Task: structure prediction
Amino acid sequence: DAKTTQPNSMESNEEEPVHLPCNHSTISGTDYIHWYRQLPSQGPEYVIHGLTSNVNNRMASLAIAEDRKSSTLILHRATLRDAAVYYCILRDGTGRRALTFGSGTRLQVQP
Amino acid sequence: NAGVTQTPKFRVLKTGQSMTLLCAQDMNHEYMYWYRQDPGMGLRLIHYSVGEGTTAKGEVPDGYNVSRLKKQNFLLGLESAAPSQTSVYFCASSVLRTADTSPLHFGNGTRLTVT
Result:
């Protein structure tokens, strides 16, 4: 399975944008890029996903490099509630293989 | 619509005891999963199911058994608990669709301590 690499931790200030990077140099053509986050003492929750084009939803934006070897999750205005562990995950196009979670990026948001 | 519900929320077992964790989903999802999360670590897949009556091994299946007798329920059993199974267990479910539109829905976890 293709692996992802993320920084262990990042810090941001409240109300500022946050760019969370993810490298996936061995991504295959049929792999989708998924992002989940896990708030303290909760199960992971889905954030966003994409294949080739940049994606936006109410929670975040996903910017995917042209060669698809990296992507960036963008939180436009960080809030204290966004402090969580963010996981970047590749999922094959059949959806038949379960998600494999790495250790993710722990985001701290300072007031 | 409760989503994914896990019971119990907390449990303490002695080494060698057995127990069953229950996961129930009310979204008519075909796929269900059991993950474990050790302190400071990411989630690791134990077992999963792609439909009623079917199960498959994940990354760390040893010491666990599962059953999916009804579509809405996925049971995780520990026959003889060991301290190494102290962890937080998460259940998740998803629809049977192509990967781009099938996010996983997670429960809030069961915190298990084996002494």
About this structure: Chain B is about 0% helix and 50% strand. Chain B touches chain A through 30 residues (CB under 8 Å). The radius of gyration of chain B is 13 Å. Chain B has a mean pLDDT of 92.
